[in-house]
Amino acid sequence: MTSTYRYLPDTKQDQEEMLEFLQVSSIDELFEDIPADIRLQGELNIPQAVPEPLLMKKMNQLATKNINANQYPTFLGAGTYDHYIPSVVNHMISRSEFYTAYTPYQPEISQGELQAIFEFQTMVCELTGMDVANSSMYDGFTSLAEAASLAVASTRRSKILVSKAVHPESRAILRTVADGPGYTVEEIQLTDEITDLGKLKEQIDKDTAAVIVQYPNFFGSIEDLTEIKKIAEENKALFIVSANPLALALLQAPGKLGADIVIGDMQPLGIPMSFGGPHCGYFAVSKKFMRKIPGRIVGQTEDEKGQRGFVLTLQAREQHIRRDKASSNICSNQALNALASSICMTSLGKQGIRQMAQLNLEKSDYMAKTLKQKGFVILNQSPFFNEFVVELPRPVKEVNAKLLEAGIIGGFDLESDYGHENQMLLAVTEQRTKEEIDQFVEVLEAIVNG
Amino acid sequence: MVEYNDLIFEISRPGRIGSSLPESDVDSVDITNKLPKHLIRDVPAELPEVSELQLVRHYTALSNKNHGIDNGFYPLGSCTMKYNPKINEDVARLEGFSRIHPYQPVETVQGALEVLYELQEELAVITGMDAVTLQPSAGAQGEWTGLMMVKAYHAQKGETRKQVLVPDSAHGTNPASATVAGFETITIPSNENGLVNLEELKKHVGPDTAALMLTNPNTLGLFEKEIVEIAQVVHEAGGLLYYDGANANAILGKTTPGQMGFDIVHLNLHKTFTTPHGGGGPGAGPVGVKEKLIPYLPVPRVEKDGEKYVLNANHPLSIGRVKGYYGNFGILLRAYTYIRTMGPEGLRQVSESAVLHANYLRKRLEPYFEAPYSQVCKHEFVLSGSRQKKLGVRTLDMAKRLLDFGYHPPTIYFPLNVEECLMIEPTETESKETLDAFADVMIQIAKEVEDNPGVVLEAPHTTVIGRLDEVQAARQPILRYEKAVEVEKETVKS
Prior knowledge:
The structure holds 2 protein chains of 2 kinds. By secondary structure, chain A is an alpha/beta fold. Chain A folds into 2 domains: about 95-345, 3-Layer(aba) Sandwich (Aspartate Aminotransferase, domain 2); about 345-450, Aspartate Aminotransferase, domain 1. Helix content of chain A is about 35%, strand content about 15%. Chain A contains 13 helices and 15 strands. Chain A has helices at about 10-20, 50-65, 85-95, 95-100, 110-130, 140-155, 170-180, 195-205, 225-235, 335-375, 395-405, 415-420, 435-450; strands at about 130-135, 160-165, 185-190, 190, 195, 210-215, 240-245, 260-265, 280-285, 300, 310, 375-380, 385-390, 410-415, 425. In chain A, helix 5 packs parallel to helix 10 and helix 10 (about 335-375) crosses helix 13 (about 435-450). Chain A is globular and about 80 Å long. The model of chain A has no long low-confidence stretch (mean pLDDT about 95). By secondary structure, chain B is an alpha/beta fold. Chain B has a domain at about 85-340: Aspartate Aminotransferase, domain 2. Chain B is built from 17 helices and 12 strands. Chain B has helices at about 30-35, 50-65, 85-90, 95-100, 110-125, 140-155, 175-180, 200-205, 225-235, 255-260, 330-365, 385-390, 395-405, 430-450, 455, 470-475, 485-494, and strands at about 130-135, 165, 185-190, 210-215, 240-245, 265, 285-290, 300-305, 310, 380-385, 410, 420-425. In chain B, strands 1-7-6-5-4-2-3 form a 7-stranded mixed β-sheet, sandwiched between helices. Chain B has a 3-stranded antiparallel β-sheet with strand order 10-12-11, covered by helices on one side. Chain B is globular, with a radius of gyration of 26 Å. The two termini of chain B are about 30 Å apart. The relative contact order of chain B is 0.13. The chains are: A alpha/beta, B alpha/beta. Chains A and B meet through helix 1, helix 2, helix 3, helix 4 and helix 5 of A and helix 2, helix 3, helix 4, helix 5 and helix 6 of B.
């Protein structure tokens, strides 16, 4: 073997010197502890190596087999959104001191990452109105399941009530996760598109560990958290809110409305859609759960000279100690995406985030209004943020195929998850121009009339 | 250089902004007409207000206080801190990959699905498994996913096996994942050679054994030579074998977990397959399984229907969803690009060099440190600081001293069964010159411990900050910036 691979620096001479030092005759000798009958014969049956320029060409070709949101305006949301990402975000997260580092185990040479996480935690607390936030979770969906597990462990109750207006994937993952420790998950039915409070009152009991709702909910509507909190509190159940962080620029912070745990995904703030991942879950709690929060958390402290510094802290709750009594096994986080999100929030700032949220509110309002004028029925009975449901006279799949022909990516089909035929969930972010919205409405009209 | 220690909130001034959004081109909406008052935000979130250049200076300054692989050697054992190729970053940022929505019609994402499908196939070959799910976001999530499949597999046979066996040298996440999946953990002690004690194992294996979780090579860097016998013992009792792929960097193209007898494997793409660790994530932890476990794989699965790639959620025995959408696509793309860059011969050379480097460094250091398992290792090895501890210097102190020379220290105090442990993994991407320079510094530190221990005990001397008070951080937690607190502090000081 010689140095023909650009990531492998060993020359023939290097290898000979090392083998000689080891007093072995060949590299194969170093693999003799692998029993002969389980050694691989021949080479791995995978494609041969491709030089960089050809590989870049191939990857570009693969990328162009996809239709991206820069080519076709997209009206898909349902948990992942096409938002403006300031250019600085990518430039800053491309500093390889950040992205080629491991988890900050050695604080003296990781102050950059640690401080960035501390700032992230602060921003999440600000948006959610909570006391403590961790350094991030895999995504909003798994974050929701972790919140449920925390509630079960800390209340010693075994039932989770989750609104049907919570993202279907969140509920599906919650069911998988609940199978481990074996707690039950019950869904709360809806009235129109929001959580049915009457049903909630019937279902909640002394064994209910937590009530989970989404804010705005899966259909875009804004649930009245105050009413839900009251019911949860009367039954001593925890109140878990899954919130879109961008919407929180305009909506009252869940922390102020009595949430015990607020979770969600930072994707709307600085993270590309990237076919669904990696995104970045967040996890925020009120003070009493500070020592139960899963994942990693950064705290401020001082060195011997009294200089401010940051360290990973409250590790006792993690798997390092009492690892066979863990209620969570999360080890890594999504640090780089949390950084992206912090940079985006810094770039937008106190004013910009409100402006961006307001644009979402106005554009979706405009689109719903325009559709109504053309005779379409909007199903949301409650106020919505940047998503709403439109009823169509034909199956969504057919309509989306026609929209695609016209160069538009249509909305989310509610049929497979809810059995709601001919209902399309539309998202309108600040990225959509009036022209694109008008064009969508025009094309849709032609499709349903044609 | 001017020292910069501000938080982003401390340089914030009302009225500054770092971004520009378009004016609204539609009718304005007054939220107070739309929502009841109690649901409208009353106090704005205190996000920083800075200009774009201030933002850039701030985060550049932070990056300068961070050590990554691109800065220098990072021999963190079991973490495989190898070079993170730049083409991978470029590929993940192509708009055709980064700006596609997970719910687009499959016809519009055939390129993305092709990448996922092929990566599934290739990882199956590399691990000797029959099928792979790319959904788990990290190794720990892969472990849990695998164990949920173990549970479903036994349940389908009408069995409720409760125990997961884990050796004492296992990664901490193994028992945690077993607990979260609803199992109880039984720890199997290692023998004097640092390997699974087959006799002890036999004592614990039985009708309640759901699975044995094993890392091979183990966390001491040693290959479990009796793996075939171990597999036989577990299988005969009706249990399954789980392979923790954290240490897969030693075996690429040399052997496969499938050949060893494993039924389930997770890989850490952020270790073996060069995707960046990102300061703690995002990673990816795909899971491969043998045929008998395929029905239990998470949904949706990426499949091929004729020439078309599709997503199929219709697998009734599946454990269900484990992660939003289809996994960390951006990370999977990077791993795919890496496998394409290396090919079969390249991947084999990766493991050969990784093992050669670890053994070379081990032999260079062994005269100066206790080597509890002095034998041929695979991609990593452990040393003990017990000799230095007798002189009053702990492994932690030596780790801090390494910082003065620009090195990230090895993993310390792990595995738990080695006193004052140093776990060193040099990886294949480091040059011999780097290995030699690191060895020289380690030897110098060992000598300092004897001649001038103060310099080690007081280390680090050159970093931006000294050793931090971790006890204070945990006892009086300050977990976010608060303006009011700062003002109070100032008053107290004056």
